[in-house]
User: Fold these one by one.
Assistant:
Number 1:
Amino acid sequence: MTTLIPPPGPDRHREIVSEVALLWAAHHPGPFPDAPFHRRHDLAYLDFNMAGCVMTYLRNDGVPGPGDVEVLRDRLLELRAAVALLARSEEYREGLRVLRGLLAMAELILADGA
């Protein structure tokens, strides 16, 4: 899954914020979905960290909180690796959907500040 980043232009920021809001609305409610036992805690913590950054970004009308850009950048490789891990098994389809959504939101937020 590749995130479609809006091209530069006067409406880019608004388009990114709108897309992040749509992705957030589709994000899972409740506990983290099933994941490999040895990675479950790490993936749930990753979800928690990323979700906090996304919620702050949306609450601030598209302005990340202090340190959130660094958190998103620092966790991007970990998030991509987790998506690749869960993509290997149909058993973890819901967890994969959740992490793909978080990855898309992170990429959009980072592109918004670029």
Number 2:
Amino acid sequence: MADFSDAYARILKATGCDGQADLSRWLGIPQALISDSRRRGEIRPEILLALLEQFNVSPQWVRTGEGERHFIISTDKIASLYGMKIYSPHQADRREQ
């Protein structure tokens, strides 16, 4: 993992939070979890998961600064997660004929 302070700075930038108290409130996690991460010098998995769930922030980007900040997922991918299929208007017209 990159330096903790770099990862923490990326988290604050991505969330727009001012500090630990603000971040813990937005992520819905105890502030002690953030303090523990700071003490250990690593971002705890619980924080990475909360960032993903609340802000769609990529754990890889938080940890390394590499890749896309946010996950980009297509509507087709989302639909497939729910067992659905998205048709374009052109495809829908063909089905109705």
Number 3:
Amino acid sequence: MRDEELKSFRTAASAGMAFTALGQGLKLLVHMAAIVLLSRLLGPSNFGVFAMISPVLALAAILRDGGINGAMLQRSSITHQELSTLFWLHASWGCAVAAILGLSAPLIAHFYDEPRLIPLIIASTAIVVTGSLSLQHMALLNRELRFRALAFIDAGSLALGFAVGTVIALLTRSYWALLGASYTTTVTIVIASWILCRWRPGWPNRSSKIADILRVGGNITLSGLFDFLIRSVDNVLIGRARGPFELGLYDRSYRIVLFPLIFVTAPMDRLVLPSLVRMRLDHDRYRKIYRLALQAPLLAILPAMVTIMAIPEPICLLLLGSEWIEAAPLLAWLSLAGALQLVTSSISSLLISQERARELTVLNALSFVLACVAYAIGLPFGAWGVAACYAVSEVVRSPLAIYWATRTGSVRARDVGEVVLPFCVAAICTIAAISLIGQRLPSAPWLLIALSVSTAYAITLAILVCTHLGRECLHEALNVTRLLGLSLWSPDGSGWLRRRQVSR
């Protein structure tokens, strides 16, 4: 890569990281606001009913998408004709998946012994069909490093979906509010992506050379399918064996702890994968990009997860209310699982960038088997048993996954260990400090939470300052903050907010 190209790419990637951080921060705030408000409006049973169809919708989305984003990013070039053929192929396949989903509604309702699921599943097929119309546009925005547009779409669509869902919840007090929120988010993504991406599909062409894209996408889809099963089989088992109330508790706990992780890691993968692909021949830069991709989510989320592990009851009361207090132990166990997944979340980008998609599939298949064993052991003890055994399985899986991914290539297990060790020390110190704080503030939950979160981040920052890689992480975080400020409000008028102000 020439120096000019490298400088241009580095600028685009840095600005992309800044806007990605802003977009995901806004998205996380909207998500937490939705949890706080909708949990009080709907209650555990309504969330349990919708959680019964959530795995089905997630499966339909994986089958519909076909790994198109990762496959397109891995390819060095792609023509308009190939994109058009992919568009119509995925649109047709989306309709087929929706039809299969609609026809399976009675079977799913019978499995759960819950007749209310039939109209809910049939209505949700619209989400599957509509979502297939934005696949190419979102992939192209990602390929062109237009992270500002992607951040806008992500945060804006979720905010609008939350607003519509809240209105429906106030009017109906039913699970239909959750479906309304999901459909609104999907429609908004389609409209915004078509507006911001100028590409328009032509007619499909049988001579288009898309076999390699479909092959890579198939491997990514298969690995994503195993990842989906890991995240969904627990819901299915709890819903089947324990009913909607316990499933509602588990689903809310899962969304508080692990969905914020997805909000951070998914866009990080969107940013990191094209960066790794471009730098895979430059081993030093490749290793540095991966280390930063590993450090960023740990710095952003790990202190909060450690806080939840230490004081789950006050956090449960603050976010969900007293009706949900039984979810507290689930929060603690799932936080441990989430903390470990922060370490392994970037493995998929590492393997795909090295053209090891098949190895990613094998790794996710083994992870699925281990998770199923954990679910089977924990299910007789209820939702908390599933959460506890899942967390223990992550303790076993994480080092094995790191070894598998780093046994070849530029990044080695030692690189991962050097990054993770300071965060592990910070986590241990944080739990000890929060325990001392809790002994002195047992009757003031909001104050305890505020002090605990502040303490967690302060300890993490202090320990990172003591290591070379930690200082490198903090330096990069400051650069991202500076770039975000310049991108939004530059004194020379080039900032986005200033341009918007002038245009008015």
Number 4:
Amino acid sequence: MLNRTPKVHIVYCHPSEKSITNTIKQGYIDGLEEINIPYTITDLYGSNFNSDITEEEYLRENNNIPFPLAEDVIIEQEKINNADILTFIFPLFWMDAPSKLVGYFARVFTKGFKYDYDDCKSVSMNTMIHTNFLISAGSNYDDLEKDGKVNALETIFIKDRLAGKTKDATMYFFEKTTYLKEKELHNRKNYFNLAKNIAKETIS
């Protein structure tokens, strides 16, 4: 257990400020602010994060050629290492994260940070006390689970991308978020409050 107030870093990824995903982000931040939890946020679309891996970055990761890290990558790694809790907020696009977030993992979770060249031991990325995934989905959760997609997403994000770098992790699904379903269900306010409670419960 920490003997201080934990710090949170949020990685947010959605192209539209009108989206329910943005409402979820706002609810989560509101929850943190209500209990005075310090946080940083990376808005991948808002900051126009470059998600395309360069040839040098590819050769560094694949061919072990020691090119220096780009400045934006160093900044993101520092944000992660200054946090105790990592929270990803994004929609499902074709049963994966948006391409900007996939590119974020490819560029930021580098050799020497997330994993080593050989033994995966000499790395600089801190181990999070908890990692949250707040995921908006147009489908019903039951359908995602029945089709094996929930297990697949847990394998990709928790067992692979965060493997060995978080003591605990939770995936939260905000279902039925397509435009027509939102018009029918009016669940935007409920999702704001749910995300707010997730923020407060994770800290407690």
